[in-house]
Amino acid sequence: MNHRPIITATLATALLLAASAGAWYLLRGRTPAYCQLSGRPIHAHMLTVVRVNGQTRYACCARCALTLQQQTGTRVQILRVTDYISGRAIPAEKAYFVDGSQVEVCSSPRMVSEEERIPYARFFDRCAPSLIAFVDEQQARAFVAQHGGALKQLDELEREITPKGPGVKTP
Question: I need a labelling partner for 42 at 20 to 30 A (CA). Which of 78, 89, 115, 167 fits?
Fold first, then answer.
């Protein structure tokens, strides 16, 4: 009796399972290339990790996450942001944010031209005004001096988007 086909099939199956397990292992910890809130590309120095409805999501910037909360009322917890200078992940509550500088990493330009070369003004962009994170307060202040904007921390940013008024529930 010839067992060669059975052995070959068993080895092929084992090899396929090992390759699948290896691919899963390599890809499981990868950061997605696109924002899971807006679909925009994620720039390495702007990556923001958030929790939405109990699930961890990757966002293109902290502003995108705050816009989601403001527009939908869904509680979005910003967990980690990326230091703009070093590219290192830092806890969001320890970051210094520059709000509204001239540097816009993930939002579209203020003036855009279509193929017909007709300019039109941007009225809304979910990632504007820019919100850039720094681990070091002095670096953030130097950035403000060079590019404009206001220095803020996470609690202040969250207070700014909290709906106010009669009958409005706060998260």
Answer: 115
Quick one: DSSP state of residue 34? B
List alpha helices for 73-149, DSSP H: 137-147
Question: What is the span of the domain harbouring residue 43?
Answer: 31-161
List CB contacts of 32: < 8 A, sequence separation 6 or more.
Answer: 42, 58
Whether residue 6 is predicted with pLDDT greater than 80 in this model: the reply is no
pTM of structure:
0.73
Crossing angle of the two packed helices 62-72 and 154-161, in degrees rounded to 10? 30
pLDDT at site 108: 60
Residues 15 and 70 reside in one and the same domain: no
CA distances from 56 to 4, 37, 59, 76, 163 (A): 48, 11, 10, 10, 24
* 33, 58 Cβ separation under 8 angstroms: no
Helix locations, the chain, DSSP H:
4-27, 62-72, 137-147, 154-161
Domain count within the chain: 2
